[in-house]
Design brief:
mainly alpha, 15 helices
Length: 317
């Protein structure tokens, strides 16, 4: 399905312009990935420190032998559990998955094992190079204080924004870009995207069913996450869809017209706002309305190119 950015004069003529598909050609899909996947080793000292200083590394002074004996079973269980958590965290930072985790993500996503492994490699290199870039920035700008370990938390906004622009062929204004980032990993709004969120989000983004993509787009458009897309939210999303003309006395009038048309199309129960049920029903009747308030999914060309690149990477190994 091709998408076209909605632009028109500020006359509010039809919502067709806002709902057209984007037909622009996709750039080379791994353009930005190649930027972030430059050679470089990821600093893993923090993870090693966590492993070395983890629970059970030393027994506190003053602990009697009898107490130690009484608590041996519990302590061993706690140490084992803590070590597993540390190792799992280290694996996540490295973008590595053990066979059980690999099988789990294969079941929970629409990806094959080959694709999951390739995406983990990309995640690892994105995070590693973001760490190197952060250190380079701090070194070249003494006044900039980088948050310790911030690059280890996952994919941040700057990396994500570049991926959307250059890899997934999504060019949109800042408000919508921020909303896509926040809606990516359900339950972790606004936080850096971790390995699990990276895989689950891409599953919907690239291979999701209509129901999954409908839920994702609704989360993007529901700016305050209250379960409704209100007139104010529609206005905020659509105001940059129109090219304002100098002779227009009130450029926002065209946006208000679009909001009213959107309500007629999407507000199925006519209560003046769009609920998720309204949105689902409207999309079921007219799938082209899925991205009614701005592009938040990759073009078909970008999707096919990205998936082809994953397969090519595996074939080359």
């Amino acid at each position: 399905m091709n998408r076209k950015p909605a632009k028109d004069g500020a006359t509010g003529k039809g919502l067709v312009a806002a709902f057209d598909n984007n037909t622009k050609g996709g750039a080379m899909i791994m353009k930005s990935v190649s930027i972030f996947l430059a050679s470089g080793r990821r600093a893993s000292a923090q993870s090693r420190d966590q492993a070395g200083n983890g629970p059970g590394s030393a027994q506190p002074r003053g602990t009697s032998d009898s107490n130690a004996k009484d608590q041996t079973g519990t302590s061993r269980t706690a140490i084992s559990r803590d070590n597993r958590r540390i190792l799992a965290r280290m694996d996540e930072l490295n973008g590595k998955l053990n066979p059980k985790m690999l099988e789990m993500y294969k079941r929970r996503t629409h990806f094959s094992k080959v694709e999951v492994e390739a995406l983990c490699k990309i995640y690892r290199k994105l995070v590693a190079n973001a760490s190197l870039n952060s250190k380079a920035l701090a070194a070249s700008n003494p006044g900039v204080i980088a948050k310790a370990g911030s690059s280890m938390d996952g994919i941040d906004r700057s990396v994500f924004r570049e991926l959307l622009h250059s890899t997934f062929d999504i060019v949109t204004e800042e408000t919508l870009m921020e909303r896509i980032f926040c809606a990516w990993e359900k339950g972790y709004e606004g936080l850096p995207i971790r390995l699990e969120g990276w895989l689950m989000g891409l599953s919907t983004f690239l291979k999701g069913s209509q129901a999954e993509k409908t839920a994702f787009c609704f989360r993007v458009y529901d700016l305050n996450s209250d379960g409704f897309i209100t007139k104010d939210e529609m206005f905020a999303l659509l105001r940059n869809c129109l090219i304002k003309q100098p002779q227009d006395e009130d450029p926002d009038e065209g946006v208000k017209d679009l909001v009213e048309i959107a309500l007629r199309k999407l507000d199925m129960d006519k209560d003046g706002k769009i609920s998720f049920q309204d949105y689902q029903e409207a999309i079921a009747e007219e799938p082209l309305l899925l991205e009614a308030f701005g592009q938040c999914l990759p073009s078909d060309r970008a999707t096919m190119s990205f998936l082809s690149t994953l397969q090519a990477q595996e074939d080359s190994n």
